[in-house]
Design brief:
The protein is of the alpha/beta class and 233 residues long. The chain has a single domain, classed as Vaccinia Virus protein VP39 (Rossmann fold, 3-Layer(aba) Sandwich), CATH 3.40.50.150. It has a seven-stranded mixed sheet with strand order 3-2-1-4-5-7-6. Helix 6 crosses helix 8. The two termini are 21 Å apart. Bound molecules: S-adenosylmethionine (SAM). The site of S-adenosylmethionine (SAM) has 24 residues, from helix 2 and strand 2.
């Protein structure tokens, strides 16, 4: 079955509540400097802590992307480059991240694994230094709940993606379960110290970023993360 000819997920299914377009995305506010500091510290242990546990989602995302030879992929928040070995050799990959320590790990990995179809650049996801329509696929794995302004980042991802290209977001979002979501809101000011806000509101994020997914799949074990696939119209 072709992956990208599905009808968009109906609006009602993803935007629960009429205030989604205006409500706060998270109880936790962060600044770039703080996040950069967190990831500079995490760089040496990142693969150990967030490697295997979050890997099923990464594998599913690559499958979902259905990357064709020659396609240009942008990974936003490339981190230690844990996804680099997963991309097919016949595409070209650009990885950006603002943490010098995480990028250093990515460069080491690329050299160790002899990965040549990629370039790594230090950049803020909220201010991408690429022209409009530069990529066929723009992918943010485990990034969107880390950044100060997820909507701005999504707008930048959309801008640099070509018309008809895929915008893929892999992330943990606030649970629809009332009990779990209360807990996620409660712990969010603490989870940001290990690199993510646990309470990013997916329907509000999609509404504010004006993203219309063609699919949303639950991934990882437990299935608390979402793989959100959009096509730029
Ligand atoms: C949770 S890690 C994800 C790493 C990798 N993509 C993965 O699959 O595990 C988030 C990464 O996003 C980077 N990051 C956070 N905010 C950023 C921003 N505003 N611009 C660029 N990179 C950012 C962090 O430095 C970190 O390397």
């Amino acid at each position: 079955m072709p992956l990208f000819d599905r009808k968009p997920v109906p609006h009602d299914e993803v935007v629960s509540g009429s205030d989604a377009a205006t409500r706060a995305l998270s109880v936790t506010a962060v600044e770039n400097d703080f996040v950069e500091g967190v990831y500079d510290k995490l760089a040496t242990v990142y693969d150990l802590v967030f490697g295997p546990t979050l890997h099923p989602g990464r594998l599913r995302a690559i499958q979902r992307m259905n990357i064709q030879p020659g396609e240009r992929v942008l990974e936003v928040g490339v981190g230690t480059g844990i996804n680099l070995p997963l991309y097919p050799k016949l595409c070209s990959v650009t990885g950006i991240d603002f943490s010098g320590s995480m990028l250093e790990k990515a460069r080491e990995r690329a050299a160790r694994k002899d990965i040549r179809n990629m370039r790594l650049l230090q950049m803020d996801a909220a201010d991408l230094k690429f022209a409009d329509d530069s990529f066929d696929i723009v992918y943010a794995p485990y990034l969107i709940s880390v950044v100060p302004d997820p909507v701005r980042v999504a707008q930048e991802m959309r801008r640099v993606c070509r018309r008809g290209g895929r915008i893929i977001i892999l992330n943990h979002f606030l649970s629809p379960s009332r009990q779990l979501s209360r807990l996620e809101r409660l712990i969010s000011p603490f989870t940001i110290h290990v690199g993510f806000k646990s309470d990013l509101d997916l329907p509000a994020f999609l509404a504010q970023a004006e993203l219309h997914p063609v699919s949303i799949e639950k991934v990882n074990v437990p299935r608390l993360w979402s793989l959100v696939t959009c096509v730029k119209d």
